[in-house]
Write a structure and sequence with these properties.
By secondary structure, the chain is an alpha/beta fold. The protein has one domain (4-224): Rossmann fold, CATH 3.40.50.1820. The protein is built from 7 helices and 8 strands; from the N terminus they run E-E-E-H-E-H-E-H-E-H-H-E-H-E-H. Strand 3, helix 1 (48-59) and strand 4 form a beta-alpha-beta unit. Helix 1 packs across helix 7 and helix 2 (74-90) crosses helix 3. The protein is globular, with a radius of gyration of 16 Å. InterPro entries: AB_hydrolase_fold (IPR029058), KANL3/Tex30_Abhydrolase (IPR046879), NSL3/Tex30 (IPR026555). This is KANL3/Tex30 alpha/beta hydrolase-like domain-containing protein. It comes from Amphiprion ocellaris (Clown anemonefish). Residues 33-222 form the KANL3/Tex30 alpha/beta hydrolase-like domain.
Amino acid sequence: MDKFNEERLKVPFGTKCLDAALCVPASVRDVHTAVILTHGAGGDMNFKHLVSLAHSLASGGFICLRFTCKGLNLGYRVKAYCAVWDYLKSLQKFTIKRMFFGGRSMGCRAAVALARQLSDESEDAVQGVICLSFPLHPPGQTNAHRQRSEGLRELPEHMRVLFVSGTEDNMCDRVVFNKVVKEIKAQVEVFWLQGGSHGLTVKGRAEDAVLDEVNSKVTAWISEQGA
């Protein structure tokens, strides 16, 4: 028997619609925690890592809504993310009490930016952010990290943030990243995937085994936040 059910959706966004997929636990009826996920600069919501994580979260008892937004402008991405957040809140079949934003690469930059904006309005709007392969700088350009980490430094103290990054990620130098983490006021946890690339792949390891490791970490972290 499936542990989750998935439904394809169209989320209104201005004059357009965003492709989305809603995953919910199959057997748990009283679900109060939701996670929104989106992809990086390339790909879409069907990127294998996002699908795997969404299914894992739903199997673990959480609502997960992932969506596609092809725009490469960060401001546009944030607006799309906000539209998805509004849509999920409007679904009357759920009583969502805890919300987590997440994304991969550019997608997590958008998640961080929206979480920071909403926290200015309400401390309870978003409980935490999941950053998969945060793109701290372009490959080899570590000096660009100040601009890309600005949103992280502006997150409030009550916000919880989980970073999942590969130790071989050429867009997240570990030394530079560790310095940035010290400047973040939010409550941060970092999970380093040994040998992991920016795509969270590891030479010599099966992709599914790596995905299971990452998914287990993310699901456990959300549970630890009282979800």
